[in-house]
Automatic annotation (TrEMBL):
Taxonomic lineage from the root: Bacteria, Bacillati, Bacillota, Bacilli, Bacillales
GO molecular function annotation: tRNA (guanine(46)-N7)-methyltransferase activity
Catalysed reactions, semicolon-separated: guanosine(46) in tRNA + S-adenosyl-L-methionine = N(7)-methylguanosine(46) in tRNA + S-adenosyl-L-homocysteine
InterPro entries: SAM-dependent_MTases_sf, tRNA_(Gua-N-7)_MeTrfase_Trmb, tRNA_methyltr_TrmB_bact
Designated gene of the protein: trmB
One GO cellular component, as annotated: tRNA methyltransferase complex
Positions bound to substrate: K122, D154, T191, E192, Y193, E194
Protein name as it appears in the record: tRNA (guanine-N(7)-)-methyltransferase
Length: 213
């Protein structure tokens, strides 16, 4: 994700704490209270500029969406999109997904999306991949029983690595697509990266997986 330094980002975040929640660990086990309803919570890790989460929130108004994004200069763009959309079922968090278990309680999340996560192709960087087993452990610790991890990417190497990682962890692979757009899922919401790569003719891979008891 291209990151331009945005000197106004700090001011924006200070003025928009209703969109990008500061100190998110204070809301652990209280996210539904913050949304003001009892709807299920879906989390996108590595939200980027927010196209997916805004599209999903419009498509599923009875689901609460929370986007986690590491980069301050990227999350402000997502926050502007959320603001423009007027959707009240989206909140954003500027955090490293490493801290997921400080933010969410066991069983608090129904679905986790990983969209076009950075591939980190060098073996020595494998532990930074969002599908490395240490991250899977964090997802397992927050997902409800039968909650899904839904992973999309254009990167075949990362996809193959991730399928093995899920399987070695003991997850059940529920649905695998090697060309999502050809398989035509009418409910699919495209991310910024998905639009860019599919426009170049690259296939999009998707896997849905669940943790087993
Ligand atoms: N999901 C978007 C899409 O599909 O268009 C953005 C994809 S971009 C390649 C990956 C994003 O994940 C970047 O914005 C990056 O800052 C974010 N990211 C990477 N590692 C992260 C982490 N550990 N925690 C939170 N966000 C992370």
């Amino acid at each position: 994700m291209r990151q331009r330094n945005k000197p106004w980002a700090d001011d924006f975040l200070r003025e928009n704490t209703h969109l990008v929640i500061p100190n998110p660990s204070e809301y652990k086990n209280k996210w539904k209270e913050l949304f003001g309803n009892d709807n299920p919570i879906h989390v996108e890790v590595g939200t980027g500029k927010g196209q997916f989460i805004v599209g999903m929130a419009k498509q599923y108004p009875n689901i609460n969406f929370i986007g986690i994004e590491l980069s301050k200069s990227v999350i402000v763009t997502a926050a502007e999109k959320v603001q423009e959309s007027g959707q009240s079922n989206i909140l954003l968090i500027q955090e490293n997904a490493e801290n997921l278990t400080d933010i969410f309680m066991e069983n608090e999340v129904s679905t986790i999306y990983l969209n076009f996560s950075d591939p980190w192709p060098k073996n020595r960087h494998a532990k930074r991949r969002l599908t490395f087993h240490t991250f899977l452990k964090r997802y397992e610790a927050t997902l409800a029983y039968n909650g899904e991890l839904i992973f999309k990417t254009d990167n075949r190497g990362l996809f193959e690595y991730s399928l093995v990682s899920f399987s070695e962890y003991g997850m059940l692979l529920k649905e695998i697509s090697l060309d999502l757009h050809k398989d035509h899922d009418p409910e699919n919401v495209m991310t910024e990266y998905e639009e860019k790569f599919s426009a170049k003719g690259q296939p999009i891979y998707r896997c849905k997986a669940v943790f087993q008891e």
